[in-house]
Fold:
Amino acid sequence: MSYLRVEGLSKYYDGVSAVEDITFEANKGEFVALLGPSGCGKSTTLMMLAGLEDPSRGKVYFADQDMTHTAPGKRGLSMVFQSYALFPHLNVRENILFGLKARKVPTNEQTNRLENVLELVDLKDHIDKKPGQLSGGQCQRVALARAIVSQAPICLMDEPLSNLDARLRNEMRTEIRALQKKLDLTVIYVTHDQIEAMSMADRVILLNNGRIEQNDTPDRLYNFPESAFSAGFIGHPPMNLIQQRETLLGIRPEDISLSLSSSQSVDGLSTTVIDCDYHGANTLIAVDFRGQTLRFIQQGHHTHRFGTPLTITWDREREHHFCLNTGRRLTNHSLSHSIIEGFS
Amino acid sequence: MKKYNFVHAGLLLLPTMLLLAAFTHMPTLKTVWRSFFSIRTNVTGEFTPSNYQFLFEDDVLWQVLSNSFWYMTITVPASIIIALTMAIWVNARLSGRSLLRLAYFTPTVLPMISVANIWLFFYSPEIGLFNSVMGWFGHDGYNWLGDPQTALGSIMLMTVWKEAGFFMIFYLAALQGIRPDLYQAARLEGAGNLTVLWRITLPLLMPTTLFVLVNAVLNAFKMVDHLFILTKGGPNNASNLLLYYIYENAFSFFDTAYAAALTVLLLIILVFLAFIQFGVLERRIHYR
Structure:
């Protein structure tokens, strides 16, 4: 049973498409991340779900009701904005209660809900402060509280963590995920940060140029990228893509290992080092392989000089193959095609 | 070193201090001082509170004060409300809004004297625009500026017309400074247009409103030039306002001492109004 359904959603600005034919579903209580590089249409898609932008084409359904042209306030959803969009002249209490007052919820009900929400987001000591007196993390909590207090079954989040520092971001990630589980919220979460998407979401919808590139669980997105774009976007550092005759061969940096039996070994590819990038726990080594750059990860600290010959190898099972023209994944790829000369 | 700093700072402040002292502080003190003498033109008088006693006996003054009071209490809110309405209207996405904006702002650009002359034509009894238009509907029209019943009202109308466009520009700038995501958030929270106006737009415009209010009140008391062209305070002081009355006393009747006492009265009124505006309103305003 899909709770939220989007069909063929498109948005054009002056004839230029920002979002093109997007179709997806989300179940009740599911955490769906819309992931993509900037300008891929993820925020526009969210705005159309919220009703703050009118779609040029397509439909939006919540609980099987057509909401495409319903006013934002009547869709039964809440939203957390990237900028938090807290009302600067109202204190925390008034900010949280804004929607309840606008919807004329009875006063005692308002107080009850406020109590509960303050408990959840830990803001009890700050209810009389104005947003200007709060830290970034506290503002974030107020924005969350305002979304939760409405008790809307669907919550939209537009890059809610992008204004926080790294430590706070990690903290809030777990916190948001826990809240979502506890309240059984259906969350559509827009982000450009793949770590957020991968760690929080039940399902990730990867967007590129206004289209859905792949709609899958984080696990499948990582292990079975449907396209060269998915392969190149997900993972840090991203997957190596080697151009062959009519296919692209993809191999993740962590799947490549050094072949210890040095240069004369038949069991490997001979390459030369371009540079080494030390990351603390490991080292990212870039090597030149017949004019193309391959990157792979080695545990520990390695310093190879430029031009040092290295023999590398990987498990053939871990290879991914994509069509050179369409970029789509080739599933039953015949092995004979993929064999790189000198790699038995 | 310390002494050098002191001299240095003093020298830097000197131009401003000289200007302020020469054109603000000295005249103020001198006005207060002179208001206690019965000096008429060049005759030396004695120290006396008689000018202030006369304030209470002067029937014209009470008429003028009541005129000024009504002039302020009507033109200030009217021009602010019209300015705000126009600003919200012009700020909305409608075609030709830059033209509309310009049209509203024109009264401010025009010199006061020429504006007053244009309105003199609008109001004139025989050939005037208003009476001509009313003539089409079979109405005889009014002697707008000549009738004590309508003179002050006519002046007010013109003031509102002039001030509203000026204040609109401030409101427009402030409206464009309000972040659009606040409106988006409000709409998502189910707020209707009226709630958005009352709970978001107006509170966030309060700093501008205070600024506009202070200016409007000052302008209401500073108004001289319209009166000079249109009515000269008449008929029978029906449209006379405080500053124009001071001007009359000082430069038409040459009673400078009484004019000085009136000026002190004006000063007290302005200080009182400023105290209300800043002391009471400012505490309730959120500054970004």
